[in-house]
Design brief:
Blueprint: E1 5-9, H1 14-20, H2 29-37, E2 52-54, H3 61-69, E3 75-77, E4 84-89, H4 94-102, H5 113-123, H6 126-138, E5 149-151, H7 154-162, E6 167-170, E7 180-183, H8 189-202, E8 205-209, E9 212-224, E10 228-238, E11 244-249, H9 252-259, H10 265-282, E12 288-299, E13 305-314, H11 319-330, E14 335-343, H12 347-360, E15 364-366, E16 369-376, E17 386-394
Parallel strand pairs: 1-2, 1-4, 2-3
Antiparallel strand pairs: 5-8, 6-7, 6-8, 9-10, 9-12, 10-11, 11-14, 12-13, 14-17, 15-16, 16-17
Length: about 400
């Protein structure tokens, strides 16, 4: 009997495929480059022994030696193999289902059209309003930020942005900070055109009161289709546009200690339990896999540090969850580090960075764990622009 086979696929373009809505989406050149350059990333987070990773790149011998020394058994494949019984793409959309089906995956193993429509709706940013409404019931004594608003017309947008000194408008579906911009109390022509275009294409736009952010974080969860359970913390950085940059590689307890400088651990635990309950009710019946809820620590008008417990729901795998798995699975508890996704205009610049970091912090592995050192998680080839890597040091 052929053993069950699990297929993993890194597909960061899925967020924009959800925005498109249909199956015949064509990824942008940038999205295609990220997907190609980081296609081997699932090797590091695949759960099942001997899982397949559908990748556009092969594993070089030096990288395979490191994978073996860390106990990784997942294997790269240039196309899905027969008898695949379960697929684990970065996220689900009609585009991903079509891509898998066209490449030989049995449609009976994939979400149906109705399920994909539900996942798309839940992935929209209006879900953050539902979650915060439920949190308000569960955490009645905790001061929550103003409720985000679903704006469905130009008039509603104008009224909203002119009612506050600083607001943020967000497209329902977007990625890497795109479709998100700050408005300083004025409904100018640029704001009007941008918001009107999003409403016309996606049906609504989200309005939020801007907060003075102190740090970004997320709580990561796993849904087994029946219940949602906490999977760990993510403490990360973004650039000025909101695009992802890096994650801290540290134990959950270490991250909690860092956050406790601003937010009481009891608050974090209460929020986590409430989110498990809410997501079990609203998400678990419709979705199986990892998911994350982005948050911020912000400073209110009185200068107090508070937790915004739901900036948005990421109903998919995330870089934060990749970092969480790497920290838990491959880094010794006595070490700490960072996980990065780095862009360079030319692969020679990535090669120079790779050589410099390798010399500054050589890799050391003991008992299938990284004790210190730099490690490129994805290969640098001619034409590569994106590199995922970790840099670990003893505490």
């Amino acid at each position: 009997m052929t053993p069950p086979k699990h297929l993993y696929l890194f597909a960061p373009e899925n967020d924009m495929a959800l925005a498109f809505g249909g199956r015949y989406y064509t990824p942008t050149p940038v999205a295609q480059a990220i997907a190609r350059d980081l296609s081997l990333l699932p090797l590091w987070y695949a759960q099942e022994p001997h899982a397949q990773v559908w990748a556009s790149q092969a594993v070089e011998p030096a990288m395979q030696d490191i994978l073996t020394s860390l106990g990784v058994t997942a294997q790269a494949t240039s196309k899905p193999q027969p008898h695949t019984t379960e697929c684990h793409p970065w996220g689900w959309s009609a585009y991903i289902v079509d891509k898998l089906t066209r490449n030989g995956i049995d449609s009976s193993t994939l979400p149906c059209e109705t399920a994909i429509d539900t996942i798309r709706t839940l992935s929209g940013r209006a879900t953050s309003r539902t979650i915060i409404q439920e949190l308000a019931k569960e955490l009645s004594l905790y001061p929550l930020p103003p409720m985000p608003e679903v704006l469905r017309s130009d008039n509603e947008v104008e009224q909203y942005v002119t009612s506050q000194a600083h607001t943020i408008l967000k497209a329902p579906w977007s990625s890497s900070g795109r479709g998100v911009w700050r408005v300083n109390g004025t409904y100018d022509p640029m704001t009007a055109r941008g918001a009107s275009g999003i409403i016309r294409k996606q049906g609504y736009i989200m309005g939020e009161v801007w907060q003075e952010k102190m740090c970004d974080l997320a709580m990561e969860f796993y849904s087994n289709g029946n219940a949602v359970e906490f999977a760990g913390y993510s403490l990360f950085t973004t650039d000025e546009r909101g695009a992802y940059q890096s994650n801290l590689l540290a134990s959950n307890s270490s991250i909690e200690n860092i956050l406790s400088q601003h937010i009481a651990p009891t608050t974090l635990h209460e929020v986590c339990r409430a989110l498990e309950k809410i997501c079990t009710q609203h998400i678990a019946p419709h979705y199986k896999g990892y998911m994350g809820i982005d948050m911020i620590v912000y400073r209110n008008a009185r200068g107090e540090a508070l937790l915004h417990p739901c900036i948005e729901l990421n109903l998919r795998m995330s870089m934060g969850m990749v970092a969480r798995i790497i920290a838990d699975r491959y880094v010794t508890p006595t070490a700490q580090g960072t996980y990065h996704v780095h862009y360079a205009p030319d692969h020679t610049q990535l090669q120079a960075l790779n050589q410099e970091l390798s010399e500054l912090n050589p890799l050391h592995i003991e008992h299938n764990k990284i004790t210190s050192g730099y490690l490129a998680l994805t290969p640098i080839l001619p034409g590569t622009h994106y590199l995922a890597y970790i840099n670990v040091k003893e505490k």
